[in-house]
Design a protein that fits this description.
single chain, 181 residues, alpha/beta, five-stranded mixed sheet, 7 helices
């Protein structure tokens, strides 16, 4: 008799096939088979919760490590959640705004994007005009909102920052300004 194990599965390129934009049936069967044998299934991904597809969430998961380890959920209960210190976060946001560095501030339920990041993702995901009403509606459906709509409560829930820029000098300047403690 095999001892029950904890199985950790990444989403992108492991569970989710980007070429078909779906989870292969073989992967679904493997997860169901492991679950039936008594193993526990956990996602382990850099994605924030808001970016996890419904198709993935519909699997019989026992928990998740999300947002590059900033949040751990076991049996639908958050057991670990580390957010950014507010002063340092506000300073970092101001630095990115001042230096035209696009960013996404990821919370557990919502992501807030600077104009550059919002336009980039809107174009990538929906092939939509940069600042259209349709684009804003589609982004909201995917739990992505413009940074200027962010409130203090949401700022206190930021667990991960992603940057969007082609400016290497700005990135190097940013990395030198990130607090290390």
């Amino acid at each position: 008799r095999m001892k029950n194990k904890l199985l950790f599965i990444d989403i992108d390129g492991t569970l989710f096939d980007h070429s078909t934009q779906s989870i292969p049936q073989s992967a679904i069967q493997a997860v169901l088979s492991a679950k039936k044998k008594g193993h526990q299934i956990f996602l382990s991904t850099g994605r924030p919760y808001a970016d996890i597809d419904k198709e993935v969430l519909d699997l019989p998961l026992d928990g998740m490590i999300i947002s590059c380890g900033a949040v751990v959920i076991v049996h639908d209960k958050i057991i670990y959640n580390t957010t950014f210190p507010q002063k340092e976060l506000k300073d970092l946001i101001q630095f990115m705004l001042n230096n035209d560095i696009g960013f996404s501030l990821d919370g557990i339920q919502k992501n807030y994007l600077s104009k550059e990041a919002f336009d980039f993702l809107s174009q990538l995901m929906f092939k939509s005009n940069e600042d259209s009403e349709l684009s804003r509606m589609m982004m909201a459906k995917n739990n992505r909102y413009p940074y200027n709509e962010m409130c203090t409560t949401d700022l206190k829930q930021v667990v991960k920052i992603s940057i969007f820029t082609k400016n290497k000098d700005a990135c190097e300047k940013l990395f030198k300004n990130i607090p290390t403690s």
